[in-house]
Amino acid sequence: EEADIVNPFRPERFEDAFFEIPFCYKSAGTPVKDIVDGTYGILSSGEDDWNDYMNRTDANPSYYDFSDIQVIVFGIQKDGHWSHDHVNPMYLEPELPKKEDGNKESEAHIKALKALSEYFKKNTKESSEKAIIASRDYADSCLKHSSVYEVDDIKKLLF
What is the pTM of this model? Predict the structure, then answer.
């Protein structure tokens, strides 16, 4: 009984209270910046998906908390793979990274983000192929600017 009084998931408590927040992204494929860590990604859902999500939580409020307020954002890794994070929309701004003159990695990153954005918006075979090619190009660009050669030199010194 005493443990139940301090249970943080009781709806009467305030620590992890669920509340609806406005969602200002019309469509899946919107490029966004996470203002907490400065990373960039692409939203996998839009306003209709958000409204459906809110309706589901309204229908079953028995167990949800602040951490439930989230959308899925896809970001690209330096190896060309896409990974996703669950991010609260209040930490997102619609934005692409700024192009850095002469920086091929930066340019490839932006192209990969734009390609995935197009894929989420169109969902066609052509947009899928463009996203795959842009992802590979980004990975190649990152590899060219990595310290792979330094690792080989270190191995020679150690062995």
Answer: 0.76
